[in-house]
Amino acid sequence: MPAKLSAIDTAKFVAAKRACEFVEDGMRVGLGTGSTAAWLVRCLGELVEDGLKITGVPTSIRTAELARDVGISVTTLDEAKWLDLTIDGADEYDPELNLIKGGGGALLQEKIVATASDRMIVIADRTKQVETLGAFPLPVEVIPFGWQTTKALLEETIAALDVMGDKVTLRMDGNAPYITDEGNHILDLHLGRIGNARQMALVLNQIPGVVENGLFIDICDIVVTGNGNGRVQVKDINNGSSSEDVIEFDEDENLFADLGD
Ligand SMILES: O=C[C@H](O)[C@H](O)[C@H](O)COP(=O)(O)O
Description:
Blueprint: H1 7-19, E1 28-31, H2 35-49, E2 55-58, H3 61-69, E3 73-74, H4 77-80, E4 83-88, E5 92-93, E6 99-100, H5 107-115, E7 117-125, E8 138-142, H6 147-159, E9 167-170, E10 172-173, E11 176-177, E12 185-190, H7 197-204, E13 210-213, E14 215-216, E15 222-226, E16 231-236, E17 242-246
Ribose-5-phosphate is lined by residues 32-37, 88-91, 101-107, 110.
């Protein structure tokens, strides 16, 4: 008998379940990465089992494996070419729905996939909502060659920008540097507060060795925020609308609880 969901998992689950309402038969859907996106993939898997026909474009090896496990037909972005919708988690979102992503190391594929979609929907629990981005360390994907030089250049660059902190750390996986699905490293920028996220996103990508940064500016259209009590808020930045629902779910849906991420 699976354990009852924690409040945080309930929040992620109801956000994912609400976001599934945007998915229609025949859509090509970008599938995000991370613990919240994993709920989405499981929920979509249930709908596929009930007859929904979609093609998923995963943003990581992990998501591709989970999507296949739950019966979603997956393809590559190059095959799909353009997507109707991408649904993904985030590490932070601000009132303009600008994001920090990449806490799980998948920012590069996530940004490419989201940018190749008509709409991007972020699913999140309330802890991801911030007034100003930057408390969550900003991930920057860099190529392994000369990464220490890239780190020094990043330190120099951020010192000249409107931020609170300036520490840059190499993300580790045990005793070795973390390796992304694209074979790169991640440098995490501990900025505290990013005064001008738009400027930062542009400037970081000018540094040789930087492949991409985790700031998603003007990419996200809708945020679905879940709460531990089953309530969800849907905010659409394009039409300024905001609505609230309660997601009813059967305790039996806790069948997902032991899947983890
Ligand atoms: O690289 C990972 C992604 O950007 C995730 O979507 C992000 O880190 C949020 O992950 P989670 O839903 O596990 O908090």
